[in-house]
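#random but structural
TW: two for the price of one
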Amino acid sequence: MRKFILFALLLNFVISCSSDDPDPGQEVNPSTGSPVILDLNQVPYPTLSTYNFFKQPMKGQVPVVGVIPYEPINTLFTDYAHKNRYIWMPQGVKAEYVSDNQPLNFPDGTAIIKNFYYDNVVPNNSSKILETRLMIKKNGTWMFINYVWNEAQTEAYLDLSGSDVPIEWIENGTTKSANYRIPSESECFICHKIEEEKVLIGPKPRNLNKVFNYADGPMNQLEKLIRHGYLNGDNLPQDIAAIPDWTHTSNPVEVRMRSYLDANCAHCHQEMAHCSYTPIRLDWDMTASPENLGSCVPVSEPLPGMDYTIMPGNANRSGMYYRFTSDDVSTKMPLIGTSIVHEEAAELMNEWINSLPAQNCN
């Protein structure tokens, strides 16, 4: 696994034209050192443009100084939507490392920004941003804030009620369609919770520990946050692990499947989370155990012809595969966040289960 490289080992890395420097003429808020406008006493604002996270035209998704892009190694599937993710923090505060497997502990005033968009949208083969989700930390608690983009792609408006957006696009030469779901505030809470606490999911050190191509050149993402003053590097271990990329076919099938489940399912299938009533636990560190993956574990709810979550050697009799490939809202997994099956992951799951040594679970 890739190891985290400390900044001291990167002194010979030459950085030019740093995107951390404000553009000439770009107004900078002296209290934050950034053009971003984020008053915790005023948020959520009625429009996305009020925050000034992006340069104009906003649809270009070019961040202003201080808004740092990031990309997890493994990402959550959302009906094939593309996502651009960013972090912004006020001046003078830093996130703290907790563990490889827990999200960074961000301070109050932090904004996590995620734009959801499609390329090659029918009929004009255009790009279209559907929504921007914000998580802003205030008084130690995360706020869920959604903005829905207009057809002109000039503005996004606050909408916490949720909505469905039919979308048709071309993916690898094939026309696909989905009834894309923009979640309500309460729907966000279904996945982003431990008991009644609102939590982050993606920004874990082991899922950020990779090189990202920033505007000013490639750099390890954790090191970028340290360099920009967003992460305290004093207590970071020198050997933070990087979770395997599930899309890399050079990795074993089981490793790829466990990585996918970690990113897409583990946040609900853990203690005190929404699906904690089931016995399976899908965090990467726990799926080395076949039982936690559901091997020969009875299904939690009746399914036609399915007795076990995983019937080793037989995907067609495995409850996990049945629910993962179902389009029935009463049985499909995940419960929310998708309206169509992730075909590539379904193929991987089928291959993985069928590769397991067959055994009698009775």
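TW: number two ↓
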Amino acid sequence: MLAGALVALSVFRLCGDRRRLLLKQSWSAAVLDALGVELEADLTHLAPGVLLVANHVSWVDIFVINAAVPSAFVAKEEVRRWPVIGWLAWKNDTVFLRRGSRGHARLINEEIAGILGQGKVVAVFPEGTTTDGRSLLHFHAALLQPALAAARPVLPAAISYWELNGERSLAPRYDGDLSLGQCTRAILKRPRIIARLVTTPLRGLAGEDRKQVAAAAREAIALAAGLPLASNPPGTPAGLPGAPPSDGRPTGSPNRALADSA
């Protein structure tokens, strides 16, 4: 984290967009390596200028995505005030969303559309919160609107974590009352954890509305990650659903894609 802060303070200001993305990618890969997390990524369906939509398990998800696909993230405005992390998020092209403000939402939609129009990837977690990684919450369709309004595709991507023995890992979970320290210690206690990022076919290319795209993306992510769909209704506070753990493994044939290009 200290290295990332130093790079953001110095080199970022002197770099072009391509170099900044490569630095973000290599730094994220280094963070995963320090945590003992091995990345396997299937990027078959990746395309320029997509809105990457993923399920949300942990703070580690951000590094998993950035190590595979350097992205601008959409986060709640409160994150910007977090010590160090908020500043790093701001320096790494995070778009901060002020909840409950329609006027601000319009500005954010325009900002996201502008980033997508440059061929860059924007990532969002439409569940709006983290889970324990064993099921999916309701997807907030409004978060997909900027891409659809700009005629840009939505890329559903499934994130899952696995132990070396092939069982689903709960160590990275950052939900409920778990603190950042507890989550980090749980990860570091494991000799190695495998993080899988699996992309699925692009959505929103046939004129579907945002609710249709959100539902299709959620189903695609559930299938790719081997997850059941939690039955919490829209608008309820996203908490931990009482879903049983899934024994399903993610579909696809992931290729290891630790960043080595910077």
